[in-house]
DNA sequence: GGGGGAAGGACCA
DNA sequence: TTCCTGGTCCTTCCCCC
């Protein structure tokens, strides 16, 4: 931004943050980056000329490969609305026009209009610092409903130019305008001008556009003549290379403050062209994925085909608050988050297996603690049970932020179409249950359990060696089989997984009957284990207040998940004990089944 | 060596 | 007085097979 007294801005920001906890944390992070840079420098110093030459050769092969992927047949446009939130607020309240204004509050600013930017006020700047930079700054609270409704209008226009346009946020999108240009015999420049005019006519908002053969370059282009302008890089290799050659690496999406510093300080790379010149060192010092990325940046290649829409990977909720150190207060916050997140999960019809607790301490240190369960969860109660354990383990704490995330969603879409247990049993066991057997527990409640045979060979081998020998996880102790886990049906497994298992999923309406579960007679049998797969969850629920099954070995989980998608976690001993269970104090417990079920 | 989980961090809007 | 939120991806470390 021209006309900004950068030095003054830096000085004010420094003066205002100096000595604060935030500042101290920044210094800590800065030291870590420096350490990383030093480490990479020393690694670089160890490289011989021939090392670098060899890496250069490897990079050349990569470059050759990348060149074959260069696609100049599509015309991409990146559209970015100018100071979007601020512009919407000004449209709704014209008295704000021409005055420095920021959307956000004293703690943080979402965006600032161009008048405010002249003072150095920027998005992601705390409001109190912005106030110092620009004492007349007007604050407006964000109103996302309003922005969403404007965004929808703008998207109507986008849709006319590319029905498959990619919306990146409320104020940004990528459009493939190739067909528009061809069918209407218009240049990309004309299309961009027309689109921007239509957006303005419909909403009163101005936007900037960038046009290039791929999204990576188009994104950079939209920034060139911002605000209310456009810039075009023609679909021509030489033009792309010329544009990229002097382009500062920081302009590229994916290269942020830290990466920029590392590239500059370790490799003296500052513009994209340097990435090709330094390909040998890059290949030597960075991972293959990072090297590929840096090389494609140097070549101006990136994102020319329409990507397939990926399903969501995680869903989270986090809140910043004024410092809390009291346990009750922390758990109350957690409950709020669990409640919020459960609602979100419900509205998106998602269930996940991994729960991640995010904590930001009063000193701005960020910690995450996660837990992957053997079953899917989405209800508030379940989130809370597991997240509470994660939180408990971190106490005492003084926090300024807490967040909760669920990920590891059930990827297999067929899983979602599976029948519930209730449905399964209401139509009988006719659907290809194969080798499975259904045994009913005594009493009226219908409880499925599975039969799995443990091969004699496996048991023998286990007995002989005292450990697993053939990929199974059965163990022999005192002449009886304990620690028996399920595995898949591929050859070599001793335990056979009934296809029935794939028909199951945890459902709430079965919880009552699950609580009446009785352990069938398998405990007395010699060479046969019937394990009800609801058992693990039953235990989890039963001891929700701090009694946890110790995780089975990771390998077992892996195996089990791979084949069954519903792993059994925990250990059930043949002699009727719940073995290796851990209570809330971390003590290992051994309960008899009788004792377990006689509780309350 | 590869797969998976945990933790941390970079980056983006 | 006061430094966000929600998401993705990558890396590193470690365990287990």
UniProtKB/TrEMBL annotation:
<keyword id="KW-0863">Zinc-finger</keyword>
<dbReference type="GO" id="GO:0006260">
    <property type="term" value="P:DNA replication"/>
</dbReference>
<dbReference type="GO" id="GO:0003887">
    <property type="term" value="F:DNA-directed DNA polymerase activity"/>
</dbReference>
<dbReference type="Pfam" id="PF00817">
    <property type="entry name" value="IMS"/>
</dbReference>
<dbReference type="GO" id="GO:0006281">
    <property type="term" value="P:DNA repair"/>
</dbReference>
<keyword id="KW-0515">Mutator protein</keyword>
<dbReference type="InterPro" id="IPR041298">
    <property type="entry name" value="UBZ3"/>
</dbReference>
<dbReference type="GO" id="GO:0003684">
    <property type="term" value="F:damaged DNA binding"/>
</dbReference>
<dbReference type="InterPro" id="IPR036775">
    <property type="entry name" value="DNA_pol_Y-fam_lit_finger_sf"/>
</dbReference>
<dbReference type="InterPro" id="IPR001126">
    <property type="entry name" value="UmuC"/>
</dbReference>
<dbReference type="GO" id="GO:0008270">
    <property type="term" value="F:zinc ion binding"/>
</dbReference>
<dbReference type="InterPro" id="IPR043128">
    <property type="entry name" value="Rev_trsase/Diguanyl_cyclase"/>
</dbReference>
<dbReference type="InterPro" id="IPR043502">
    <property type="entry name" value="DNA/RNA_pol_sf"/>
</dbReference>
<feature type="domain" description="UmuC">
    <location>
        <begin position="76"/>
        <end position="256"/>
    </location>
</feature>
<protein>
    <recommendedName>
        <fullName>DNA polymerase kappa</fullName>
        <ecNumber>2.7.7.7</ecNumber>
    </recommendedName>
</protein>
<dbReference type="InterPro" id="IPR050116">
    <property type="entry name" value="DNA_polymerase-Y"/>
</dbReference>
<keyword id="KW-0460">Magnesium</keyword>
<keyword id="KW-0548">Nucleotidyltransferase</keyword>
<dbReference type="GO" id="GO:0042276">
    <property type="term" value="P:error-prone translesion synthesis"/>
</dbReference>
<keyword id="KW-0479">Metal-binding</keyword>
<keyword id="KW-0862">Zinc</keyword>
<keyword id="KW-0239">DNA-directed DNA polymerase</keyword>
<dbReference type="Pfam" id="PF11799">
    <property type="entry name" value="IMS_C"/>
</dbReference>
<keyword id="KW-0808">Transferase</keyword>
<dbReference type="GO" id="GO:0005634">
    <property type="term" value="C:nucleus"/>
</dbReference>
<keyword id="KW-0227">DNA damage</keyword>
<comment type="similarity">
    <text>Belongs to the DNA polymerase type-Y family.</text>
</comment>
<keyword id="KW-0234">DNA repair</keyword>
<dbReference type="InterPro" id="IPR022880">
    <property type="entry name" value="DNApol_IV"/>
</dbReference>
<dbReference type="InterPro" id="IPR017961">
    <property type="entry name" value="DNA_pol_Y-fam_little_finger"/>
</dbReference>
<keyword id="KW-0238">DNA-binding</keyword>
<feature type="domain" description="UBZ3-type">
    <location>
        <begin position="505"/>
        <end position="542"/>
    </location>
</feature>
<keyword id="KW-0539">Nucleus</keyword>
<keyword id="KW-0235">DNA replication</keyword>
<dbReference type="Pfam" id="PF18439">
    <property type="entry name" value="zf_UBZ"/>
</dbReference>
